[in-house]
Design a protein that fits this description.
The structure holds two protein chains of two kinds. By secondary structure, chain A is mostly helical. Chain A has a domain at 55-110. Helices cover 83% and strands 9% of the residues of chain A. Chain A is built from two helices and two strands. Chain A has helices at 2-48, 69-125, and strands spanning 55-60, 63-67. Chain B has helices at residues 10-47, 94-154, and strands at 59-65, 68-73, 79-85, 88-93. Chain B is built from two helices and four strands. Chain B has one domain: Helix Hairpins (Orthogonal Bundle), CATH 1.10.287.370. In chain B, 8% of the residues are buried. By secondary structure, chain B is α+β, with helices and mostly antiparallel strands. Classes of the chains: A mainly alpha, B alpha+beta. Chain A binds chain B through residues 39-40, 42-43, 46-47, 50, 53-60, 64, 72, 76, 79, and chain B through 81, 84-93, 96, 100.
C-alpha cells in the first residue's frame, strides 16, 4: 500500500518539477521579449525624431542597405505590435501554468499525507 | 515593511539576507553596466569634437585591422553614421549626433538615478537584518551559557 503511494508520489513530484522548469523557461522568454520591447521603443523614438535630411540604413549581414524612413518606421511599429502580442500571449500562458502548479501542489500535499498515513499503518502492524 | 524583523527566526533571517544579497548584486551589476555604456557614449560624444572645419582635408590613418593602418584624408566633416539600435543606422550631421549622444547620456543618468535609491534601500534593509541576527545569536549564546552554568550545579 505505502509502496504504491510512494511510486505515485514520486511520479507526481517529477511532473511537478518538469512544470516548474517550463514556468521558468516561459519567464525568461518573457523577460527577453521585454528587453526587445525596450530596445525597439528606443529605436522608434529615434526614428520619430528624424527628418527628410537623414538617411536610414539597415544592417543586413555585414552590409548597410539604404532604406526609406517611412518603411523603417513601419517595420519597427509592426515589430512593436508583434512583441506586445507575444508578451500578452506569454502572460496568459504563465497565468495558466501558475494555476496548474497551484493545483498540483495541492495534489502533492494530499498524496504526501496519504503516504504518511499508510506508512504509519504499516509500522503499526509490525 | 509590514513584518517585524525581530519576529523572524534565525533561518528565516538567513534566507532574507541571501535574498537581499542577490538583489544587491543584481542592482550593483546593473548600475555597473549602465555606467560602462554611459562612458562609451561620453567618449563618442567627445570624439565628435574632432570633426570640425579646421580638420577638413587633413591626413589621417585609418585602421584596417587592429595592427594595420592605411593613410587617408578627412573628406566629410559634417556627416556621421550612428547606430540607433536593432540594426538601424542613421546618417546625421555633427550637431544632431551630439544631441543624440546627449539624449543617450541623459537617459542613462536617469536610469542610474532610478536604481540608486533602490540599492540604498536594500543596503539599509540588509544592515537591519544583520543587526537583528547578531542580537538573536547573542541571545542564543547567552541562554546556552546560562544552561551550561546551571547544568553542573544541578548535577
Amino acid at each position: 500500500m505505502a509502496e504504491a503511494i510512494q511510486k505515485k508520489l514520486k511520479a507526481e513530484v517529477e511532473k511537478y518539477t518538469q512544470m516548474q522548469k517550463d514556468v521558468s523557461k516561459s519567464m525568461s522568454a518573457r523577460q527577453k521579449l521585454e528587453t526587445q520591447l525596450t530596445e525597439n521603443n528606443i529605436v522608434k523614438e529615434e526614428l520619430d525624431l528624424l527628418g527628410s535630411t537623414n538617411t536610414v540604413y539597415k544592417l543586413i549581414g555585414p552590409v548597410l542597405v539604404k532604406q526609406d524612413l517611412d518603411e523603417a518606421k513601419a517595420t519597427v511599429t509592426k515589430r512593436l505590435e508583434y512583441i506586445n502580442g507575444e508578451i500578452q500571449r506569454y502572460e496568459t500562458v504563465l497565468k495558466d501554468m501558475e494555476k496548474k502548479s497551484e493545483q498540483h501542489r495541492e495534489v502533492l500535499s494530499s498524496l504526501q499525507q496519504e503516504f504518511q498515513r499508510a506508512q504509519g499503518l504499516a509500522v503499526g502492524k509490525v | 515593511m509590514a513584518v517585524n524583523l525581530t519576529d523572524l527566526s534565525l533561518p528565516q533571517l538567513e534566507g532574507l539576507k541571501t535574498q537581499l544579497d542577490q538583489e544587491i548584486e543584481f542592482l550593483t551589476s546593473s548600475i555597473g553596466q549602465l555606467k560602462v555604456v554611459q562612458t562609451k557614449y561620453v567618449e563618442a560624444k567627445d570624439s565628435m569634437n574632432v570633426l570640425n572645419k579646421n580638420n577638413k582635408g587633413k591626413e589621417l590613418l585609418v585602421p584596417l585591422t587592429s595592427s594595420m593602418y592605411v593613410p587617408g584624408t578627412l573628406n566629410d566633416v559634417e556627416h556621421v553614421l550612428v547606430d540607433v539600435g536593432t540594426g538601424y543606422y542613421v546618417e546625421k550631421n555633427v550637431g544632431e549626433t551630439k544631441a543624440f549622444f546627449k539624449r543617450k547620456i541623459d537617459f542613462l543618468t536617469k536610469q542610474i538615478e532610478k536604481i540608486q535609491p533602490a540599492l540604498q534601500e536594500k543596503h539599509a534593509m540588509k544592515q537591519a537584518v544583520i543587526e537583528v541576527m547578531n542580537v538573536k545569536i547573542q541571545q542564543l549564546q547567552q541562554s546556552q551559557q546560562a544552561s551550561q552554568m546551571v547544568g553542573p550545579t544541578k548535577a
